[in-house]
Amino acid sequence: APGAQEFIPPQADTTAELREAAAGCRGCELYRDASQTVFGRGDESARVVFVGEQPGDMEDQKGLPFVGPAGRLLRKAVDDAGLDPGQIYLTNAVKHFRFELRGKRRIHQTPDRVHIVACRPWLVAEFARLRPEIVVVLGATAAKALLGPTFRVTRQRGELLPWPASAQHPEDFREVPVDSAGRAADAPPARLLATIHPSAVLRADDQDTAYDGLVADLTLAARALA
Ligand code: URA
Ligand code: SF4
């Protein structure tokens, strides 16, 4: 598969322009079975960008990220952590829904490394336009995309981390602090904060404790921005 890079218009200044182009992405095979590309959404001047795994069944149908149960929980956690919901942008490491058909049901399948790598140029392009102060990495797939395969969310969550110079493919991140117009050579690179995925909160045996942990991690981001 060619990857997403050749579908990205370098002249695009905004995530809205990227979104338009991403509708036609064929950078990996996932576009074939999914309904549509689910690109990121939110404030163009967001201070915090949240990176999930991939759209779910409902997101695939609506064409918007985090509109299902996990999204509802995430928005509540954002509120409870004291983050301004008007200053966030929500996106995913992989922008098409990967699933397996069982009868008529579409069962979520975790994306493979090939999908994460193929789709990462969109994520990098979003960061380059948004220049967020903090990137919140939600769960293992987003962590693989941004921090490499050896990162363990369970052990390294809840810490503000410097932008990963040692990321798996550092060349992917070179352009991140600088947008396509060449602005922002002065803008510091974002810091990263890894935490549990909201879907994992919904699956936890003790949902209240898992939820409180998510809010506690997000509170760190809120404090860092205050
Ligand atoms: N889970 C994700 O990771 N992303 C979504 O958009 C929805 C659910
Ligand atoms: Fe393109 Fe990403 Fe969709 Fe693959 S998952 S087709 S790389 S947008």
Automatic annotation (TrEMBL):
<dbReference type="GO" id="GO:0006281">
    <property type="term" value="P:DNA repair"/>
</dbReference>
<keyword id="KW-0234">DNA repair</keyword>
<dbReference type="GO" id="GO:0051539">
    <property type="term" value="F:4 iron, 4 sulfur cluster binding"/>
</dbReference>
<keyword id="KW-0004">4Fe-4S</keyword>
<comment type="similarity">
    <text>Belongs to the uracil-DNA glycosylase (UDG) superfamily. Type 4 (UDGa) family.</text>
</comment>
<dbReference type="InterPro" id="IPR005122">
    <property type="entry name" value="Uracil-DNA_glycosylase-like"/>
</dbReference>
<keyword id="KW-0227">DNA damage</keyword>
<dbReference type="InterPro" id="IPR036895">
    <property type="entry name" value="Uracil-DNA_glycosylase-like_sf"/>
</dbReference>
<keyword id="KW-0378">Hydrolase</keyword>
<keyword id="KW-0479">Metal-binding</keyword>
<dbReference type="GO" id="GO:0097506">
    <property type="term" value="F:deaminated base DNA N-glycosylase activity"/>
</dbReference>
<dbReference type="InterPro" id="IPR005273">
    <property type="entry name" value="Ura-DNA_glyco_family4"/>
</dbReference>
<keyword id="KW-0411">Iron-sulfur</keyword>
<dbReference type="Pfam" id="PF03167">
    <property type="entry name" value="UDG"/>
</dbReference>
<dbReference type="InterPro" id="IPR051536">
    <property type="entry name" value="UDG_Type-4/5"/>
</dbReference>
<keyword id="KW-0408">Iron</keyword>
<feature type="domain" description="Uracil-DNA glycosylase-like">
    <location>
        <begin position="39"/>
        <end position="214"/>
    </location>
</feature>
<protein>
    <recommendedName>
        <fullName>Type-4 uracil-DNA glycosylase</fullName>
    </recommendedName>
</protein>
<dbReference type="GO" id="GO:0046872">
    <property type="term" value="F:metal ion binding"/>
</dbReference>
